[in-house]
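Input structure tokens:
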């Protein structure tokens, strides 16, 4: 078995890994590069392999940095099996059409052809095969695949691949993005105990999140302080998982009278559609969430909540006088309706922007988080006079302690760990910790680096 890294190497985004054994070719994820103009340009380069030769594309989860180039893969010849959990396939079917609109806008702005066309998107979805957690799928002579829970977003998976060698069977695990346990909605990530090789994410490979109680208190304090100033609380949020988890948290705070009554707007058609998918897959939720649902509480609805789909509904938010909370995409402020609200409220010293998700280096959200005093929105320079707060604990990504624990379960058996999907510094820190504390070789691979898994 040979493993080659074609994305997600010394970079948070663009996850794309190829496993080859004889004529069998298995691709894991095919995501967009994000965060900078250079990253966007990478999306338009030709794949370094022939997509028509790929037998299986395994998808860990539905975030765009893991699925965004799948229609391009189809356009360039892929006709194999697209395999993911049932929930992931449904989320892809909702998220990618939305992403298609952003791609069209980008192509028009930069005067080039779109990355893919609507037919490519529709046709690749017909190749999908939904699988259940724990289901064993045989894909070749001595090669078996299993999807296990990752606890990151709805339907997210750790992928286990078993393959035969002269020494006997070996196992490689792809973490995808691991969750930040315990999440309010999902089960804990599966922790392997028998890995020979691991490919592990490292977005927070050098950081430790706040604990749940601290996270909740920061949210309460941020809301109450903004309300007292009479300002607007803007929360750039990823449509998948972050918005649903935040609604769950706000629902609890409202029920417990922990925050003052204030209008809460989810200004994201995609987030509204994604939440409908979440309602369809309640069996994926953890037991405590199921108990709450069974008690009759709608965890995605509470007094004061308004879901806006249309542009006119979005514009009417500005007519609401007094404090309010606006949750809108995109999560890194690279597009979407959050830009309209940031354009209006970033200059307001009474307002607050609350960062609750990972911000890729070079993204507008990262520049706001890093304390820049101005930012370009719609071609204009906008001053940042509002308060800027961040809660790392709301990230869907595991922190260093959780990542290390995930790897250490297989200590003693592990031959090699490949650290990916993190900025180079974060990946290096995690790799060094694994090497020094587990006496296991940990590598931060570069683009097109290949390794034989013997």
């Amino acid at each position: 078995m040979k493993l080659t890294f074609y994305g997600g190497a010394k970079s948070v985004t663009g996850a794309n890994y190829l496993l080859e054994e004889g004529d069998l070719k298995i691709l894991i994820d095919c995501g967009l590069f994000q965060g900078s103009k250079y990253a966007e340009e990478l999306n338009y380069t030709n794949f370094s392999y022939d997509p028509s030769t790929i037998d299986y594309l395994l998808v860990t989860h539905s975030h765009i940095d893991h699925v965004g180039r799948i229609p391009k893969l189809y356009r360039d010849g892929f006709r194999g099996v697209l395999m993911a959990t049932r929930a992931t396939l449904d989320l892809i079917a909702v998220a990618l059409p939305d992403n298609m609109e952003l791609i069209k806008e980008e192509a028009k702005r930069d005067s080039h052809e779109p990355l893919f066309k609507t037919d490519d998107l529709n046709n690749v979805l017909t190749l999908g095969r939904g699988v259940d957690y724990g289901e064993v799928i045989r894909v070749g002579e001595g090669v078996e695949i299993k999807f296990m829970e990752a606890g990151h977003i709805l339907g997210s998976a750790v992928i286990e691949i078993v393959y035969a060698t002269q020494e006997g069977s070996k196992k490689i695990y792809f973490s995808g993005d691991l969750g930040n346990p315990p999440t309010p909605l999902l089960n804990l990530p599966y922790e392997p105990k028998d890995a020979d090789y691991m490919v592990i994410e490292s977005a927070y490979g050098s950081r430790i999140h706040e604990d749940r109680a601290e996270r909740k208190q920061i949210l309460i304090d941020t809301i109450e302080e903004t309300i007292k100033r009479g300002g607007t609380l803007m929360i750039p949020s990823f449509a998948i998982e972050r918005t649903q988890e935040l609604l769950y948290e706000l629902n609890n705070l409202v029920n417990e009278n922990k925050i003052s009554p204030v209008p809460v707007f989810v200004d994201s058609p995609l987030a509204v559609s994604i939440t409908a998918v979440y309602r369809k897959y309640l069996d994926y939720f953890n037991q405590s969430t199921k108990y709450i649902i069974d008690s009759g509480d709608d965890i995605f609805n509470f007094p004061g909540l308004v879901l806006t789909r249309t542009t006119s509904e979005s514009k009417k938010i500005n007519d609401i006088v007094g404090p309010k909370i606006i949750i809108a995409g995109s999560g890194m402020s690279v597009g979407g309706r959050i830009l309209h609200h940031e354009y209006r409220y970033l200059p307001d010293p009474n307002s607050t922007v609350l960062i609750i998700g990972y911000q890729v280096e070079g993204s507008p959200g990262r520049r706001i988080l890093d304390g820049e005093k101005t930012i370009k929105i719609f071609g204009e320079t906008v001053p940042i006079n509002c308060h800027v707060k961040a809660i790392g604990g709301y990230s869907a990504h595991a922190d260093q302690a959780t990542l290390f624990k995930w790897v250490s379960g297989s200590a003693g058996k592990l031959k090699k760990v490949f650290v990916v999907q993190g900025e180079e510094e974060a990946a290096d820190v995690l790799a060094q910790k694994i090497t020094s504390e587990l006496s296991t070789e940990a590598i931060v691979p570069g683009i097109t680096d290949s390794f034989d898994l013997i």
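The first strand starts at residue 2 and ends at 7. The CA atoms of residues 340 and 389 lie 19 Å apart.
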